[in-house]
């Protein structure tokens, strides 16, 4: 027999993780509550709810990114397929865009293994670790994910807000502290500001909450769905898909094989 412990129903009830959808959840819990219940199997406390909500909102949109363009161009070719257009935008999530929270979180986890036996590392210990990680990454020619931004070159405003919320809610832990030290070490190494960006700050908060890197990617995808739907709706009202196609056609030519 096939079983799923997430949800199910009968003629009289619909249940999610054992809770009755109508009697226990509707009009009593918000979307973040039920999202955590479905994925994690439990409701978040107020502090976690605020941090997760901030992560979802941060992920909604960042302009005409590759994912937004994929959504718009797919809708231009298949205007009846909202789901196809949104899916096209999500399918591009990976190590460069949209999936970077998971990559950054895994990098931090790996780096922090060096202090696994230290319950409350000092700033000096974190600074030394950050210097060592930067030196090793340079020697291995390995990029450190979660730092720097092509637009917010002097500091990502989303990071400042994430830091404030984490401090207010008591979740400013070892990973966020390490990330800030890593930003300083990386900036000194490359000779220009390499601020902790939204990806890195979300990864740090995620780990300080005790959540998995995969859950961080999931939150980014869930948040971005709303933004991609917005791009699809705008594409129907004020289309730019044909203009994008025209620009690409004007700037390209057929090459010889």
TrEMBL record:
Lineage of producing organism: Bacteria, Pseudomonadati, Pseudomonadota, Betaproteobacteria, Burkholderiales
Keywords: Lyase, Transferase
Species of the source: Ramlibacter monticola
BP terms from Gene Ontology: carbohydrate metabolic process; tricarboxylic acid cycle
Enzyme Commission code(s) on record: 2.3.3.16
UniProt key word Disulfide bond: no
Any GO MF annotation of the entry: lyase activity
Alphabetized PANTHER family for the sequence: CITRATE SYNTHASE, CITRATE SYNTHASE, PEROXISOMAL
Family matches, as InterPro entries: Citrate_synth-like_lrg_a-sub, Citrate_synth-like_sm_a-sub, Citrate_synthase, Citrate_synthase_sf
This protein's record includes keyword Disulfide bond: no
UniProt protein name: citrate synthase (unknown stereospecificity)
């Amino acid at each position: 027999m096939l079983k799923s412990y997430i949800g199910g129903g009968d003629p009289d009830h619909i249940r999610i993780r054992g809770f009755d959808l109508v009697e226990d959840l509707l009009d009593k819990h918000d979307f973040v509550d039920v999202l955590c219940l479905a994925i994690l199997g439990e409701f978040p406390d107020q502090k976690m709810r605020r941090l997760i909500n901030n992560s979802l909102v941060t992920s909604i949109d960042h302009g005409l990114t590759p994912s937004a363009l994929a959504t718009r161009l797919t809708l231009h070719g298949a205007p009846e397929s909202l789901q196809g257009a949104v899916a096209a935008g999500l399918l591009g999530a990976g190590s460069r865009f949209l999936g970077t929270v998971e990559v950054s979180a895994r990098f931090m986890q790996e780096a922090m293994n060096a202090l696994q036996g230290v319950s409350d590392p000092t700033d000096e210990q974190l600074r030394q670790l950050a210097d060592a990680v930067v030196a090793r990454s340079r020697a291995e020619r390995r990029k450190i994910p979660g730092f720097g931004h092509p637009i917010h070159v002097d500091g990502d405003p989303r990071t400042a807000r994430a830091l404030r919320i984490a401090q207010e809610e008591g979740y400013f832990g070892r990973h966020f502290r390490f990330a800030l030290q890593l930003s300083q070490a990386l900036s000194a190494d490359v000779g220009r500001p390499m601020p902790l960006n939204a990806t890195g700050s979300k990864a740090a908060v995620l780990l300080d909450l005790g959540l998995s890197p995969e859950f961080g990617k999931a939150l980014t995808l869930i948040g971005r769905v709303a933004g991609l739907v917005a791009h699809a709706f705008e594409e129907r009202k004020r289309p730019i898909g044909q203009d994008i196609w025209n620009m690409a056609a004007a700037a390209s030519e057929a090459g010889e094989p």
